[in-house]
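Subject: Adenylosuccinate lyase

B.,
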Amino acid sequence: MIARYQRDIFKNIWSDQNKFDTYLKVELASSKAFHELGLIPKEDLEKLMKASFKLSDVERLEQETKHDIVAFTRAVSLSLGEEKKWFHYGLTSTDVVDTAYGVLFKEANEIIEQGLLTFMETLKSLALKYKNTPIMGRTHGMHADITSFGLKFALYYDEMNRNLERFKLARKQIEIGKISGAVGNFANIPPEIQHFVCKDLGIYEANISTQTLQRDRHAFYLQVLALIASTIEKIGVEVRHLSRTEVLEVQEGFSKTQKGSSAMPHKRNPIASENMAGIARVVRGYSLTAMENIALWHERDISHSSAERIIMPDATSLIDYMLTRYNKVLNELQVNDEKMLKNINLNHKVIYAQRVLHLLINKGLSREAAYDKVQSLSFYALSIESDFDIVLKQDKEIMRLVNLEEIDNCFTLDYYFKQVNTIYQNVGIYS
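Prediction pasted inline below.
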């Protein structure tokens, strides 16, 4: 992952130093387990618990052995005496690697989950702040019906809450270890070792495995990350649309020294929202790679390994970056409620047509007749650039059915907010 899109905390989690430190934790937990079973003498265990390594030794030995775990075990053995015979006892490489991944995922996931909760609080705050702010609702990109600007954030809050539920489930499936030996049959290592190690490390343990944990777990996890990324992109797409010059209902924050274009000094672009779209594409691509990693040959091959060295650090780092950066964008979002009102009336009030339609139906017209009449008059109002309520009041056929007060009642904003409280309660947002 390039530094631009990775916070230092995730750089540290996925660093080689932390990776091998975690390998050592797995190895030593296994040694403690074997001691509990009576195999490793207490004095040897005490010496093993002081084991250490130099990253430079691991890197040097890997050049010789062409095997990172062999290089790691030999680098650790340099710090040990005769007790080194017990180090990595009964284990296969993936016992260490996959179990260490479970620990590393837990480190990353605790940060990501907190990021999700913080992001959701921001969405909730915006939903409440703009609960009674009218905005033009759009379908197919066209003016449709008036709605609450706050409802947009309530919708995102509800969606992100589903993402949170999925993420918690994915955590249980990915923060997991296996210590089952070369083909997963526990022939050379008792099942009690796996139980002890995973409990000691604070992660779950697999019911069954081959030499590897099954990669459906990782695929599901990446799919959940892709869903989180896609929700953030979804919010960003809305911000981008509402930021367009012709709309200008919201804008991303813009610092005093910030520049929008190298050529056009007047530009102020929604760059963070566009950034979210690009990163979301990457995360979704990683989820496809994770799906491809499910089908391994027999009890294992390493076709998944090279891909996971890239996609796992990258995907988790990117989700953390997206949650952190876009939470800041939303907190600094500039909302132009006056322009929202202006845009509502941009089309000469024809957006109240549905209410007029219902009024005419209530007065006895068939739906077909009422629809055709309202459509004709709304198109006419647009063609002559006259407000729709004025055109209605000038139509003799309409005025034979309704009075002026009934027409005026079709052009009020409060009508569109009568069920907003109910919707907020449905998604768990309370004033």
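Residues 93-129 form the longest helix (37 residues).

T.
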